[in-house]
Design goal:
Helix content is about 50%, strand content about 10%. The chain is an alpha+beta fold. It has two domains: about 80 residues, Glutaredoxin; about 100 residues, Glutathione S-transferase Yfyf (Class Pi), Chain A, domain 2 (Up-down Bundle), CATH 1.20.1050.10. Helix 1 runs parallel beside helix 3, helix 4 packs parallel to helix 6 and helix 6 packs across helix 7.
Length: about 190
């Protein structure tokens, strides 16, 4: 059985959501970060970096939320959370998976911390990044093709978090997208 090590109100939520979407049974192992459970030897044996989430699947240990979501989407292909490797939408899917953690997340982190974005940063400020997502969402329900995918989990989780932190400007397209995502039963079950 899949074993998820996670902590509430962290990037672990993405993986919980993904697990709920694929519908496979899994055990939840909650770590109390304030008590330092993620830095104890038992967990460090699973993830030496002491970060959450971590997924154990038999002998496989996968860390990093995007990697875990990609692993699950590919392994449980029947859930249709990822286009097939030979699909014309695969590149678009990969783009959004990496965009979420490589561009969207750092831009919102900078905005939340009040850090200025410079040319050396490697990404745009949060408002410019939001424009990219909003433009991509024009007249489509989801980021890749017309189907919900793990890319929506990754990008959507960032938008949901940023909105809860007051970091998103008013945007009807993004607002509708977030509403579509937060109404999904798997999202609601991941709380």
């Amino acid at each position: 059985m899949l074993q998820l090590y996670y902590a509430p109100r962290t990037r672990s939520r993405r993986v919980l959501w993904c697990l709920e979407e694929i519908g496979q049974p899994f055990d939840r192992n909650v770590l109390n970060l304030r008590a330092g459970e993620h830095k104890k030897s038992a967990y460090l044996a699973i993830n030496p970096s002491g970060k959450v989430p971590a997924l154990v699947d038999g002998e496989e240990v996968i860390t990093e939320s995007a990697a875990i979501c990609m692993y699950l989407a590919d392994k449980y292909a029947d859930a249709r959370l990822a286009p097939a490797v030979n699909s014309p939408h695969r590149g678009e899917y990969l783009r959004w998976m990496f965009f979420a953690v490589g561009v969207l997340e750092p831009s919102f982190t900078d905005k939340r911390l009040g850090r200025a974005v410079t040319p050396k940063t490697g990404w745009s400020d949060a408002d410019d990044v939001l424009t990219v997502v909003s433009q991509a969402m024009q007249n489509v329900p989801f980021l890749v093709g017309k189907s919900f995918s793990a890319a929506d989990i990754m990008v959507g989780s960032m938008l949901i978090w940023a909105d809860s932190e007051g970091l998103i400007r008013e945007d009807a397209v993004l607002g509708d997208y977030v509403k579509r995502l937060t109404c999904r039963p798997a999202y609601l079950n991941s709380e």
